[in-house]
Amino acid sequence: MGDYKIESGIPIPTDFRQSGLKYPFDEMNVGDSLFIPPKSEEENVKQLGNRIAQARQAYQKRMAKRREEVRFTQRMWTEDGVAGYRIWGII
User: Fold this and answer.
1) How many distinct structural domains can be found in the chain?
2) What is the pTM assigned to this prediction?
3) What are the DSSP calls for 64-87, one per residue?
């Protein structure tokens, strides 16, 4: 147990999470959609899909806690030769 140094007086940093939304889900209505391309050439379409799904589901859960039902769906989409995802507001 001698590998750890116990310290006092170190301030707790502010919240590291982002404030605000990464995607404009709160601005979308039923029937609206948006195209999301990869952030960089290193990000593949599967990684992008997972990132979007996680953000979408977190937003839907947050709204459900407020008793507001919103739903989105996402599909792989190619726009102007760029493979990404399109998100639609469905409820």
Assistant:
1) 1
2) 0.75
3) HHTT----EEEEEEEETTEEEEEE
Q: What distance in Å separates the CA atoms of residue 76 and residue 36, rounded to the nearest whole number?
A: 10
Q: Which residues fall within 8 angstroms of residue 70, CB to CB, at 6 or more apart?
A: 25, 59, 60, 63, 89, 91
Alpha-carbon distance of 57 to 3, in angstroms, equals: 40
- The candidate with the shortest Cα–Cα distance to 60, out of 50, 71, 49, 52, is 71
Is 14 part of any domain? no
Residue closest to 74 by CA, chosen among 20, 28, 41: 28
Find residue 57's DSSP bridge partners: none
For 57-66, what is each residue's pLDDT tens digit? Answer: 999 999 999 9
Domain membership of residue 53 (yes or no) is yes
In a domain, 7, yes or no: no
Q: In what order do the strands lie in the sheet with 82-89?
A: 33-36, 82-89, 72-79
